[in-house]
Amino acid sequence: MSVILKVRGTRDLLPPETDLWNRVEHTARSLFTRYGFGEVRTPIFEDTQLFARGVGEETDIVSKEMYTWEDRARVDSERAQSLTLRPENTAGVVRAYIEHKLNDSGMLQKMFYIGPQFRRERPQRGRYRQFWQIGAEVLGPAWSGAESPLRDAELLEMLATLLNELGVRGWRLELNSIGSATDRPRYIAALRDALAPIKDRLCEDNRRRAETNPLRVLDSKAPEDQALINTLPRIADFLDEESTGHFRQVLASLDACGVPYHVNSRLVRGLDYYTRTTFEFTVPDGSGLGTQNALLGGGRYDGLSEILGGPKAPGIGFAIGEDRLILTLQAQAERDEVATERKLDAFIAPMGIAQNAAALALARELRAAGLSIELGDGMFRLRKSFETADKLARRMVIVGEDEVASDIFTVKYFAAGEQSKVPRAGLPDALRT
Ligand code: HAM
Q: Does ligand 1 come within 6 angstroms of the Cβ of 296?
C-alpha cells in the first residue's frame, strides 16, 4: 500500500520542537497581557470577498495565492458561497470589529492572535503554504486616539521588547511612511511616469508590476534591476504635511525610548490596506531563514474598516511569521551552542519489575508537586535506564528494593556527575530546577 504523505508546503511540528513553539507563544501571550491586549480568535475561513476587498485584488496574495473554493448550499435556505482559507488575519479581525460593533464602545481595541494562515506560495525554507502568525491589531474610532503616532511607536517598542525577551539577536527594524489615501495616488502617478521610459529594461516580473501595481517594483529583490529602481522617485517627497508630521513623531517617540530603526524609503509591503507607517523586522544572514529574512511585518491601515463597509476606525498592527521566528531561534541557538530543548526535572528508574508500582506512585506524587517526570520501567537494564534518563532528564531517581523499604532514594545529578540520598519528603525540593 502506498504511504500517504503530508501536502507540499505543510509541516508536522513534533515534540520536542513544539516545546519551543509553546515557550514562544507563552512569552508572547504574557507580554501582550502586560501591554493591555486581549486574545481574538476569528474563523480560519471567510467569505472570499473579505480578502479581495481588504487585502486587494491586485496583490500577489489575492491574485495567485489563495485557497478558494465554492462552498455548495446544503439546504434551500443557504446560498452557494465562495470561501477562502485566511491568508492573513488583519482583514478577519477588522471584519469582527465591524460585525460586533466594537466601535460603539469608543475605546481603543487591542487584540492579538496566534494561528495558522494559508498561502499557495512556492515552498522553501521559511516559506510554507500553511504557516503560523503571532499578530496584534490596535484600532478604534478616531476619538480613541487610534490614529496617534504614539500608537505606532508603542507597538514597535512592544515588538522590540518581545524579540529581546525571546532572545532574538541582531534584529533590524526598517520602517517607512507610504502616506495617506490622498498622498499615495499622486506618488503612484509619478512612479508610473518614471517607470514608463525605463520599463522595458526591467525584468519580466517588474515590467508586469510596473503596469499592475507600480509600488511593488520598489520592493523587488531582482539584482539586475536595483540600479534602475534606485533612480525612481521617493515617496517621502510626496507626503502631505500631516503624514510627514505623523512619521516624524513616530521616529521621535522611538528615539525617546531607545528603539533603533532604519528608515527604508523602498519598504512598501505587499498588502493594499496600508497607509502611513509600514515596517518590517529582519534578521541578519545566517539566522536560518535563507532569503526569507522578514521575521515580521505590519503597518497602519486607517481606511480598512471603511473599505469593508464599516465605520471610520484607523488602526495599526503586525504579524510575526512564527515558523520563521522558530527557525531563527534554533539557528542562533545552534550557532551559540545552547540547547533550545528543555530537559525534564527527573527520570524515575525502577530497578526491577517488582518496583514498578512503587515507582508509579512516586511519579504521581512528584508530578502532583508540579515536577516534570518521565517514568522508566523495571524491565529495562540499569544501563538502558541510565542512557534514557540522561537523554530526557536532568536527574534520575533510583527506585530499588532498599529505597522502597527505607523511603530514602538515590538521586543522580547528570550535569554535576554527582549523586546523593534524599528522603521521600525532600524529593520535590531536590528535583526542582
Ligand atoms: P505579511 O507581511 O504578509 O503581513 O506577513 C507577516 C509575516 O508572516 C511575514 O513577515 C512572514 O514572517 C510571515 N509569512 C508570510 N508568508 C509566509 C509564508 N508563506 N510562510 C511562512 N511565513 C510567512 C500580514 O500578514 C499582515 N496581516 C500583517 C499586519 C497585521 N499588518 C497589519 N496588521
A: yes
